[in-house]
Amino acid sequence: MYTRRALRWALGPLKPVSSCGQKGQVRPFVQTVAQTVAPRASSLWEDPLKTFRKITSGSEVQDPRSVSLPVPFKTNGRDTSPPAFGKLWLRDNCQCSKCIHPDTKQRIVDTFSIPQDIDLLEATAEKDTVVVKWSDGHVSQYPFYFLRQYMRNREPPKKELNSLRIRPFEPYTLGQHEYPTVSYSDVMANDIALYGWLENIYKWGFCFIKDTPVNPEATESLLKRIAFIRTTHYGGFWDFTADLTFKDTAYTNEFLGAHTDNTYFTDPARLQLFHLLSHEHGDGGASLLVDGFQAAKTLIEENASHAKTLRLISQPAHASGNENHCITPSRQFPVFNWHPDMHYIYQIRWNNYDRASKWDWTIDQQYKWYEAARHYDEILRRPNMEIWTQLEPGTALIFDNWRMLHGRSEFTGKRRMCGGYINNDDFLSRYRLLKFGRQHVLGNLGNIKHRETNPFNFV
Ligand SMILES: [Fe+2]
Ligand SMILES: [Zn+2]
């Protein structure tokens, strides 16, 4: 990816180096910064929004609150100036063991005891670390990989209000792919199989787990391989029959249209697992999955303004079926939820059963929303969007509730089903650590770039 880019050393703002020999090679050096390179303005702290870039005889003078460090970086051909770090940020983000606890990885530096006008006295590159001496007497250490992270992320992303991208995903196409499937014993036995399972869930939105022992205990252990089970007003791990213990359509034997769960929560569960333990004296009850992202993509292609409406107009939701509950999210959410850092749609909330009455909209907005929602609903019901399967004892199903809608056909007889929810953050923690390893994940904290190598690109 970087073959045409030059590798450069940042040697400080006033000593740009035009060339450093062959690609991939870096000449060793030690840099000492005696003092701030730009003249100090007396009004330095008066106007924090003022930028200090001045053009003097063709070369740029940096903001005196910033400093360049001796860390090798790759340029993209256009931006060849060494990246500048804010001094206060740099001091606050010291990576030494007095500032970041080596065991807990927590920040232990007393941020607000750092002088606001902290200055850098000396910066030296040693192997793969930059050592910095500060005016408050502290000596800091910054690994190169940590500093490069800042270089990659220093430009805040532009707001893309009209963009309608969706997070990268793979749509399952009927007849073109086998169902994503893993085996219970593999997943329980080793972390590579566990990672394969989580990768399937993230990529396809769902996965079957065959050879699952037909009992609630084994099913619960299977879920706990990912993380602890999320407890809700329905309990933790559920084991239920259609008896309306909870006053919710899910606990009946009626047809259940495609929906996502937990639209009434501020933070809906990310994963949901079902395992049919038995079905006696009847039939029916086929399971339905619909890829909400694929349907959103179709909507964007067919009518972008409908998609925009579902992105911008929020709806209230509630769960009030049982006497002592009235659960609502902390605010209204739209159907298509937009990730403010990653700039794409990352979560679908679609549950007509749990939608509450919306008051805060004009008649114009009402007609606009109903028209857009009707279009999305029509797409969701197209036969090529529906994935119908018949659950069987021994094969559990797990899916991404932030993406896949689920439902089921009506059934007769008595079904016993067990399963549970897992939180988003716990799922992603497990997934990213297995995919990238702990060191790489920790080295990318705060990274919001769209890169396959960035663990936080996976949301
Ligand atoms: Fe549901
Ligand atoms: Zn430190």
UniProtKB/TrEMBL annotation:
Function comment: Converts trimethyllysine (TML) into hydroxytrimethyllysine (HTML).
Keywords recorded for this protein, A-Z: Carnitine biosynthesis, Dioxygenase, Iron, Metal-binding, Oxidoreductase
Protein name as annotated: trimethyllysine dioxygenase
Domain TauD/TfdA-like: 167-421
Pathway(s) annotated for this protein in UniProt: Amine and polyamine biosynthesis; carnitine biosynthesis
UniProt feature coiled coil, ranges: none
Needed co-factor(s): L-ascorbate; Fe(2+)
InterPro entries, alphabetized: AlphaKG_dependent_hydroxylases, GBBH-like_N, GBBH-like_N_sf, TauD-like_sf, TauD/TfdA-like, Trimethyllysine_dOase
Catalysed reactions, as listed in the record: N(6),N(6),N(6)-trimethyl-L-lysine + 2-oxoglutarate + O2 = (3S)-3-hydroxy-N(6),N(6),N(6)-trimethyl-L-lysine + succinate + CO2
Family designation: Belongs to the gamma-BBH/TMLD family.
Residues in Gamma-butyrobetaine hydroxylase-like N-terminal domain copies: 85-148
Source organism of the structure: Aspergillus granulosus
Principal EC category: oxidoreductase
EC nos: 1.14.11.8
Keyword Oxidoreductase annotated: yes
